[in-house]
């Protein structure tokens, strides 16, 4: 029997709804405001007082972004490093985890000790730079993807996940003559889609948003990433004098701030486009390693 709603219930529901609406507004409005800036004249935006819709609607910010080879190249480099870096990191991390999940692996405890030490202690930026330079990765595209090919955090989670896969699946494949690589590719990976999707989402987001490696280890302007270009615009806007190009831009319909906002919108769209395809695996993937069967 349905209980009759009292005045206290209505008050409580109204209060909860209002709180949730406020939280949603606080969360979404900054994104809407950035989108608003991209469709408004840059010179008009600097005047302030724009909150709900563009005062001087224009597509000039996006046209400037598309026509500027510097921004287009940075966008393509970011896409390339995200795709290649994610594929390599997921593949090698899952392969190493599959091997370490075998309880009869020789020196298994030693490998685990190395992983734990590497997760908690770092040699520092200078040591990391020396290693990259000795490997010939400085000022190359490889500096974006090779250092992150093994993700230690997801390595431990993957080991926990692979241990839950019944050994009988692999044994039956070995009886039929299947190699370990074939077992990994044909049996282990297909049943590990929640793990793979979760790893891909987090590693891909990290690759997409990373800019420190582009700032510290790359001098070739053709290898700069989108996030690094955004950081450049922020730094230029903080300099009072600025260079001639920034001054010329500020007098036009496009300003450094409007281009920065446009780059932010462009950088958000790919992540929003990928997330719906991985959403069905995301919740189950987040629980990996936390529940034992």
From TrEMBL:
CDD domains tied to this protein: TM_PBP2
Domain ABC transmembrane type-1: 75-278
Location in or out of the cell: Cell membrane
Keyword Membrane in record: yes
Domain of life of the source: Bacteria
Membrane topology according to the record: Multi-pass membrane protein
Biological process per Gene Ontology, one example term: transmembrane transport
Entry GO CC: plasma membrane
Entry keyword annotation includes Magnesium: no
UniProt entry keywords in alphabetical sequence: Cell membrane, Membrane, Transmembrane, Transmembrane helix, Transport
TM stretches of this protein: 12-35, 74-98, 110-132, 144-162, 183-203, 257-278
PANTHER family referenced in this protein's UniProt entry, alphabetically: ABC TRANSPORTER PERMEASE PROTEIN MG189-RELATED-RELATED, POLYGALACTURONAN_RHAMNOGALACTURONAN TRANSPORT SYSTEM PERMEASE PROTEIN YTCP
Protein name: Carbohydrate ABC transporter permease
